[in-house]
Amino acid sequence: MLNKIVLTGAAGKLGGLLRAPLAALCRELVTTDLAPGLANLLPNETYVAADLSQLDQVMGVMEGADMVVHFGAIGDEAPWDAILQSNIVGAYTVWEAAYRQGVRRVVYASSIHAVGMHPKTDFIDTTARHRPDTYYGLSKCFAEDLASLYWDKRGIESVCMRIYSCEESVNNARALGTWLSHPDLIRLVTAAITTPTTGFSIVWGVSANDRVPVDNARASFLGYRPQDNAEVHAPRVLAQAAAMDPQNPEDMCHGGPFAVVPLGESGVAMIKARSVKA
């Protein structure tokens, strides 16, 4: 059991899912976000409000930590200045504070959007070159390269989890390949923490879907073995799905809707607006 784990982004949807599983892996869990507080703190959990763009605040949160699970960031496309402060400067402060405080490993919520402009017909592995689809995806490229640099020059281990579509269920045809179930997210993060050594690693955050468009073989040493499969939802989803357009990057690229959203504009808002019109 680890002595202390820090979880950033604890007030977010995915961060909230991880609080209890992480608390079971350590004696002390420190959670942080911009929110003034969290409800229903666990017996070994302490919450500290912190701005990840401020190194001095992050330094205090990291003191005495063994590992950091970094989910704190804007989780959508946004204007450049917002992405710069939250996702890029915030990544730097996390890795720099981890180095200064002697943290062993950073487990990072990266994204498919770091490689979102690759065609889905390319069955890519974890060595595929960066090909971001948005400023948001570009920030994930930066953080992955930062993780690589801090491993090579400062010995901080990292596991960069390129998360796809992490939802409770499967609601569209794209997700038949890209779905990451909530239980599999917990399995993935747990594997990233409990694996004895990782160096600098990249792993796809997907479930065991029949239609998965990426290859996780190079990350098998992490011991992540997903158990859920989106195919059980295929009859319902495909019966409702519109035909895909082979000339449309949204249908043909790994990044899906983010492959066509204008730079700086919310991809999530675009998806919601379409749902309302439908």
Produce the secondary structure layout.
Blueprint: E1 2-8, H1 13-23, E2 26-33, E3 45-49, H2 55-62, E4 67-70, H3 80-100, E5 105-111, E6 124-125, H4 135-154, E7 157-163, E8 165-166, H5 175-178, E9 179-180, H6 182-194, E10 200-205, E11 214-215, H7 234-240, H8 249-252, H9 267-277
Parallel strand pairs: 1-2, 1-4, 2-3, 4-5, 5-7, 6-11, 7-10, 8-9
Q: From the coordinates shown, what is the CATH architecture?
A: 3-Layer(aba) Sandwich
- The H/E string reads EHEEHEHEEHEEHEHEEHHH
How many DSSP helices? 9
- What number is the mean pLDDT? 95
Distance between the ends: 49 Å
The profile of the biggest β sheet is:
7 strands, parallel
Approximate strand percentage: 15-25%
Percent helix, as a range, is: 25-40%
* Structure summary, number of beta strands: 11
- For the biggest β-sheet, the strand order reads 3-2-1-4-5-7-10
| Radius of gyration, whole Å | 18 Å
Family: Belongs to the NAD(P)-dependent epimerase/dehydratase family.
GO molecular function: oxidoreductase activity
Protein name: Uronate dehydrogenase
Keywords: NAD, Oxidoreductase
